[in-house]
Structure to design on (255 residues):
């Protein structure tokens, strides 16, 4: 494998049944849909970068999600020990992306400064926003900052050779996506900048928003960064499990 050319693993840890009105802005049809919950591991033979932290089983149960395994168990199936991971990208501070931080005692967390500012600022507690975050997780990242374990990004930055983060906003104030160099070119992990393939393919934003025009701009940036449409990996689409190469139950690979 060429230097800084990554394999991208999507590891599912939970799911829930939902409907189209919750998943697409302005959709009132309430057609049944499934949402999958993933974390991602980027591996180049020398290093591992983890993207997002999922939620813990108690949080998922309280929120009515179907928890299938801990992310540590899923990562173990591809040979990743969270305790040894040095870099974790946190795409944004919603509950399903921040929950298992304690599993990564050696990690530096890469977050957008705009996300921390918003989630500790005057509007985070308003009804439109507060349900999407777990205050205990946000407080944990404040503590990690005091321990010098948070790297604040303002816009775009390299996390490791071949791995970059890009602020796009839209879904949250500090929503960031990840571009990854693979053997086939630049891939993009959208996380919640595009929950489903249909979001970016059809310009249909998700229903949970910080900035609607920003969501459209995020779709444009996703398409600009990716070298091919099939190198775009959305954040919650069960179709990821069909379109990528199976590795194990609930684990697929973009090689």
């Amino acid at each position: 494998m060429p230097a800084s050319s990554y394999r991208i693993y999507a590891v599912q840890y939970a799911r829930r049944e939902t409907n189209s009105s919750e998943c697409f802005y302005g959709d009132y049809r309430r057609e049944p849909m499934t949402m999958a919950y993933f974390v991602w591991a980027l591996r180049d033979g020398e290093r591992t970068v983890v993207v997002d932290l999922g939620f813990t089983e108690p949080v998922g149960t309280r929120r009515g999600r179907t928890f299938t395994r801990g992310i540590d168990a899923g990562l173990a199936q591809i040979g990743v020990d969270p305790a040894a991971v040095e870099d974790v990208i946190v795409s944004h501070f919603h509950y399903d992306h921040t929950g298992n931080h304690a599993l990564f005692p050696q990690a530096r967390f890469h977050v957008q400064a705009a996300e921390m500012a918003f989630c500790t600022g005057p509007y985070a507690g308003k009804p439109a926003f507060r349900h999407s975050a777990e205050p205990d997780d946000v407080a944990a990242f404040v503590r990690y900052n005091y321990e010098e374990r948070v790297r604040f990004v303002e816009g775009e930055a390299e996390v490791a050779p071949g791995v970059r983060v890009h602020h796009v906003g839209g879904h949250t104030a500090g929503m960031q996506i990840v571009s990854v160099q693979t053997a086939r070119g630049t891939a993009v992990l959208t996380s919640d900048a595009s929950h489903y393939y249909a979001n970016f393919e059809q310009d249909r934003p998700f229903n949970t928003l910080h900035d609607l025009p920003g969501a459209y701009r995020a779709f444009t940036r996703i398409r600009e960064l990716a070298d091919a449409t099939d190198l775009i990996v959305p954040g919650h689409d069960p179709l990821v499990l069909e379109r990528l190469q199976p590795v194990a139950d609930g684990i697929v690979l973009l090689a």
Notes: Residues 2 and 183 are 7 Å apart (CA to CA). DSSP finds nine helices and 14 strands in the chain. Residues 7-254 form a domain with the Metallo-beta-lactamase; Chain A fold (CATH 3.60.15.10).
